[in-house]
Design a protein that fits this description.
19 helices; globular; alpha+beta; 499 residues; three-stranded antiparallel sheet
């Protein structure tokens, strides 16, 4: 299904936002609402970011149209072929000519489902239309006209006359005329997609070893699946083993987890799908998303292990972070929990501190002094992180210089970091804010590697604003950007060196 709109969503009662491509599946909508800390069914505010082929709808889709109506329209538009798109545009233009003011989304949806109620002719001018009608004997008065005068006919006048009589219109792809009544489907349409039976949907096929063509016998495979179903799909695709197969994730209960993950083991994916299904039934899928995001997990086996031990999610997160995270400062990764959590990680007796994260027991976030007194600062605590205390206190084995720097930060000495950048009147404020963020995330050498999406989410900025800020910093000599790659060769987040 083709992408139709890309929108930005905003929580009604929070300052959270996220981007979403439409049409979105049930899981896509659920994931977006989780990020906004809103239940599925609530209606977030939205704004357009991008259109794909239906720009003429923009001025008519006002904010009286909610996310679910917009998604229902996008679902129908995303399945259209070229003829149907032309038919829809023509029907829409007919509707516009009848009214003053915006066309309702209910009318748009009815038009989208009525593209088989009209004819589409390959003509975009009256002259082309008149010639088509004359050549195909659609004008009775010309049936007995000799061929010798055919080229002398005024095709433009003939076409204009036919268009006015039929009430047809020109669209960007041809001439459209309605021949039957429009379908009225909106009132009976389920705007909110139903929860699917699958947890992960794949498209699978046998790899074409001797050509560069697409795999043959492509088919859907819904996970979790029984071994019998896996064997049946393998046989239907003509594969001897799953090592010969290629598959692509079409939809999943946690889209962000599988977007940047190598999925080359069907059995590991099947186990993950079983975990998704169980967590969803237990109402703990949001909690799982939060821990996976905070741990920056990109390994299916590790994700399955976290899911199977989610009751002890705090301890599992600590162990996973110690094993897999290459970030020198774990505290900022914990801030990612805010994408999905509002008390989701709190167990029985847990509380919700003002920072939006959770602390087991107690009545709020510990003070920095209390955190330091509890140990070496390396054990990551799920508690509210106060502004200015995002860095963990240096533990045993770290230099006195690091301790002195932390004390300098506590006393307000961080101002010395930013004296030059504050004085740079040519640097936009967005760039100064991102510079401070990167400085806070960087290690002793000034290096860090947060993704664009992470920066945007943590700072409540759009991705385009972050990209412009990074470009500004590079141009002014405050930042060096280098590419990074995973062991399998795929791209990872950039390495930033703050100067």
């Amino acid at each position: 299904m083709n992408e139709v709109f890309r929108v930005e969503l905003f929580g009604e009662k929070t300052d959270r936002w996220c981007e979403l491509e439409l049409p979105a599946s049930y899981y896509g909508l659920q994931d977006a609402l989780d990020k906004l800390q809103m239940p599925l069914g609530d209606k977030p505010r939205w704004e357009y970011l991008e259109h794909h082929g239906f720009q003429f709808l923009h001025v008519h889709l006002t904010h009286e149209c909610d996310l679910y109506q917009l998604n229902a329209l996008a679902t129908c538009l995303g399945q259209m072929n070229g003829r149907e798109k032309t038919a829809f545009e023509g029907l829409f233009n007919m509707e516009v000519s009848k009214k003053y003011g915006p066309i309702s989304v209910a009318t748009m949806i009815n038009l989208a489902y009525s593209t088989d109620c009209c004819h589409v002719i390959n003509a975009t001018t009256d002259e082309q239309l008149g010639r088509f009608y004359a050549e195909n004997d659609f004008i009775p008065a010309l049936e007995k006209a000799p061929d010798s005068i055919f080229e002398y006919l005024d095709f433009e006048t003939l076409g204009r006359k036919a268009r006015f009589e039929e009430g047809g219109v020109f669209a960007s792809g041809g001439y459209v005329t309605q021949h039957t009544e429009l379908k009225q489907v909106y009132d009976s349409l389920a705007l909110l997609p139903e929860a699917p039976e699958y947890s992960i949907r794949l498209t699978v096929g046998r790899y074409p070893f001797h050509s560069n063509e697409q795999p043959d016998n492509m088919m859907y495979l819904d996970l979790p699946a029984t071994q019998e179903r896996l064997d049946a799909v393998l046989e239907a695709c003509g594969g001897a083993s799953w090592s010969e197969m290629v598959f692509r994730v079409e939809d999943s209960a946690m889209p962000a987890l599988l977007e940047n993950m190598d999925c080359d083991d069907i059995h590991e994916l099947n186990e993950l799908a079983k975990c998704f299904k169980e967590l969803s039934a237990q109402g703990e899928l949001s909690k799982f998303k939060a821990v996976i995001l905070a741990a920056d997990c990109h390994d299916i086996a590790a994700a399955v292990q976290i899911a199977e031990n989610l009751d002890d999610s705090q301890g599992q997160f600590y162990r996973h972070e110690n094993r897999h995270s290459s970030h020198a400062d774990p505290a900022p990764t914990l801030l990612k929990l805010g994408h999905y959590l509002r008390g989701a990680v709190c167990g029985a007796g847990g509380s919700q501190p003002s920072g939006g994260l959770c602390q087991p027991g107690g009545s709020g976030a510990e003070s920095p002094a209390a955190q330091r007194a509890g140990g070496d600062g390396r054990k990551l605590r799920l508690c509210g992180i106060q502004p200015g205390w995002n860095r963990p206190y240096p533990g045993p084995g770290e230099s006195c210089k690091a301790r002195e720097a932390d004390e300098d930060i506590r006393r307000g000495g961080t101002m010395s970091y930013f004296g030059t950048i504050y004085a740079d009147t040519e640097l936009p404020s967005r760039a100064k804010a991102v510079y401070m963020y990167l400085r806070d995330r960087s290690d002793a050498e000034g290096k860090c590697w947060p993704g664009i999406k992470t920066i945007a989410s943590d700072m409540k900025l759009s991705r385009s604003t972050v990209k412009r800020a990074l470009h500004d910093l590079e141009q002014h000599g405050y930042l060096q950007k280098d590419s990074r790659h995973r062991p399998n060769g795929s791209s990872s987040s950039n390495l930033y060196t703050v100067k």
